[in-house]
Amino acid sequence: MSIVWLSSMELGHAGIDRDHKTVLGIIRNCDLALRDGRQADAAAAMADLRVEVAAHFAREIDLMSEAHYDRTEEHAQGHRRGLAEIEGMVEAARQGRLAADAMQGLIDTFARRLFFDDAHFVNFLNR
Ligand SMILES: [Fe+2]
User: Fold this and answer.
1) Spatial CB neighbours of 101, under 8 Å, sequence gap ≥ 6
2) Quick check: is 109 in a domain?
3) What is the average per-residue pLDDT within 32-43?
4) Predicted structure pTM score
């Protein structure tokens, strides 16, 4: 079974939640493609993922800057590490050697970022 979007993943910020749902849907497509051995589909999904994640990260940082969030730079550093990780995976997928455990690592990272780092920001907005 792959990851699925759950309402419990909503943080209560419409824009961020919409982005997360989109990103998770692409991660799911990539995961399912890998599980089925559809490497070309996995590579296409990873390329989409890089575009969507970069756009999402930029929107999040804009929101954080506007709100004068005190952890913006720390969060941006996490984004840069995350994008570098994804870029490595895009290349691996393009070469048909993206491993299922790398995908699981990405799912874990997504969940950790959502429930800790992004939730912390939404709580800051709602304080
Ligand atoms: Fe996020």
Assistant:
1) none
2) yes
3) 95
4) 0.95
